[in-house]
Amino acid sequence: MSLKGKTILVTGSTDGVGRFVAERLAADGAEAIVHGRDRARGESLVQQIRKAGGEARFFRADFASLAEVKSFASAVRRSAHHIDVLVNNAGIGSAGQGRQESRELSADGFELRFAVNYLAPFLLTRLLLPWLERAKEARIVNVASAGQQAIDFSDVMLERGYSGARAYRQSKLAQILFTFDLAEELDGRPITVNSLHPATFMDTTMVRRAGVKPISTVEEGGAAILKLVASPALADVSGRYFDGLKEARADPQAYDKSARKRLRALSFELAGMPDPLAA
Ligand SMILES: NC(=O)c1ccc[n+]([C@@H]2O[C@H](COP(=O)([O-])OP(=O)(O)OC[C@H]3O[C@@H](n4cnc5c(N)ncnc54)[C@H](OP(=O)(O)O)[C@@H]3O)[C@@H](O)[C@H]2O)c1
């Protein structure tokens, strides 16, 4: 699809693969909505894009707070007539900001990785759906991971047996369950939603913070994300999971309708919103 004149929001585009993707989209003619927590880095990316002749705007929001997600969605809705593509990319890794094995909580008291990596983009997507519907054709791209672990519905907030890796993997699988569930809901409407593992251990802050030696580049992961954003061949493809450039199978829980239903109900409850499909 041509990117000229498209409005594309990339969350977590102040760093890593999100930054690469926002730069590339703007270079190809899209208006990039840049997001992150660090205003200085966000504004500097916007300046860089504008200097190169592109269009961009920055919004600051910490996804560890659902109130900030709501204000962010409102600010985006005020500033854009519609959104063509939403790339849910922002995230924290297994090591996050703190020590790997110390359980952290969001401002709302939820396990931090579940909140930032899953619940925040769930809420943002829900709040921006009417703006995606205003586009002729829209896409949602959920940047998940090959690191996945089944959600234990009796302990979603990981009060028992916590590890940073488990928290990260659970949040990433939750994004995929959400992708499949939303694709079903949006069937017949001109919005597609897909998820992917961009690339393994790209050279980014998240990977370096975990003390892992990078084995791929942001260019490789970025190419996989850009394919889901813009490939004409994927115009009608929805509800899939990709590993890099190829379609792949996710953890079996993603194909379990009852698990998706449980996660959906929990997510609406935690986000404090009514489910539009609930009777
Ligand atoms: N790196 C890999 O090898 C790899 C592999 C599989 C999947 N992924 C996924 O790819 C996505 C990007 O990862 P990356 O490696 O590019 O990470 P990164 O370089 O650490 O960048 C993460 C981005 O997310 C933002 N972010 C982090 N916490 C946030 C919060 N609480 N609120 C709002 N924004 C927040 C960061 O903003 P700040 O600038 O404010 O920190 C930054 O822009 C993630 O979803 C990750 O799970 C990465």
Characterise this structure.
This protein has helices at 16-27, 39-51, 66-79, 112-133, 164-185, 205-209, 218-230, 257-271, and strands spanning 7-10, 31-36, 55-60, 85-88, 138-143, 191-197, 241-243, 246-247. With 279 residues, it is α/β, with parallel strands linked by helices. It has an eight-stranded mixed β-sheet, with helices on both faces. A hairpin with a 2-residue loop joins strand 7 and strand 8 (246-247). The N and C termini lie far apart (37 Å). The model has no long low-confidence stretch (mean pLDDT 96). Bound molecules: NADP nicotinamide-adenine-dinucleotide phosphate. The site of NADP nicotinamide-adenine-dinucleotide phosphate has 30 residues, from helix 1 and helix 6.
Lay out the secondary structure.
Layout: E1 7-10, H1 16-27, E2 31-36, H2 39-51, E3 55-60, H3 66-79, E4 85-88, H4 112-133, E5 138-143, H5 164-185, E6 191-197, H6 205-209, H7 218-230, E7 241-243, E8 246-247, H8 257-271
Parallel strand pairs: 1-2, 1-4, 2-3, 4-5, 5-6, 6-7
Antiparallel strand pairs: 7-8
The structure holds NADP nicotinamide-adenine-dinucleotide phosphate (NAP).
NADP nicotinamide-adenine-dinucleotide phosphate binds next to α1 and α6.
